[in-house]
């Protein structure tokens, strides 16, 4: 973020900024950008925290009510690792670094005051993701909120990832610096709570929203601090993730990853390895923030006080309205599982859940090797032997362990305290079915819920049925953020989405015709999984 010394600016800069939207707040004077095609004011790259000390909690930006800030461009994104990051950097969409704790505000032009806020937390396994990703452009969903007469403000936030955001070891535990990426998210919410009213938003009407690791983050915020959300949000939307998972592994899992990192940057032999890691240059440490194994969240006795199942079953979570759901065939690209022994081996040693051999054998009993019952669902007895003879069976177990069963548990437990709980199953593929597309897998809903027809990374396409579905789901999400009911979407001919507590059902999103189904699939296996503590 560039602090503008207003009275010393060159004269050639003044006209451009003079016609831009300006918001004065305790945080500063922000000069944004007007987006005429959407009739929106954008305030991009706002720093909610100064550059954090590496492997330490960030702090909230100090108030600077007289300082001018240029908020017309995205800021630096947090360091990430993976194919999405590679595409964004190569395409010139982003630059990466440690001074990355920014947020973006998309505000519609409207006379309505005290607008609800829809706050987006991107996914990417907690290893990659960026608010500059065009697939997360919030202008389209904010536009639909206005067209539906339920205007909301859209906000997207950055947070530290991989080792920079989730490093853990005995050394980290002693300093109390766990779960830094989640704390970054919480800090962004605090900034929004403190300053969004200056931008026309209502701090009491914030809905936090995420997908995959973003949804798991939302689930963590629901259970954080024994359910005390400190008034930072009133509702949540969780796509393909929840309050249980990814696995809460201890130092016995992460210590060797920490030790590998110290060895990689020349810190293994010093007495204070953590301080050494902080002192090495960014260029030295950045290549080693992800070395083939993911850094996840951990129990820290405060933000994450216990296993997610324990928080849910004991009622120690924030009781709020939620939308939550999974895609029909979440899957994880598992290959090479040909027999029971290989399945047990992968289940026991996977980094995505904590399962012992006894549990693995029970899961194989509950999920028999019958292709007609396996995932991807609805393909009958067809198999893909090139992926493994038990691929469909293992995909079913993997999906239910990580997403489908936890989704049902959260819906059931939240419904005991809150009426406005809405569960869904997404059954529309992200691409038209082709020989290379198998099922409705992870991330399939993202092109629809953001509705950006221009981005070609994961294109929505121009099919009229897909466009209609996209319009409907965008209006459902923003209607929920506006008045806690997704049924206020204003689209005719759509079946009413019932509250989960009164129906135990899912809204099934399809491009041809959406419908309601009973939430009772794979009942015995799901019940067993939800009685585990992982």
From TrEMBL:
Residues 22-509 form the Carboxylesterase type B domain. Pfam families: COesterase (PF00135). Keywords: Hydrolase, Signal. Its EC number is 3.1.1.-. The keyword Disulfide bond does not apply. It comes from the Eukaryota. PROSITE patterns: CARBOXYLESTERASE_B_1. The keyword Lipid biosynthesis does not apply. Residues 1-18 form the signal peptide. GO terms for molecular function: carboxylic ester hydrolase activity. Belongs to the type-B carboxylesterase/lipase family. This is Carboxylic ester hydrolase.
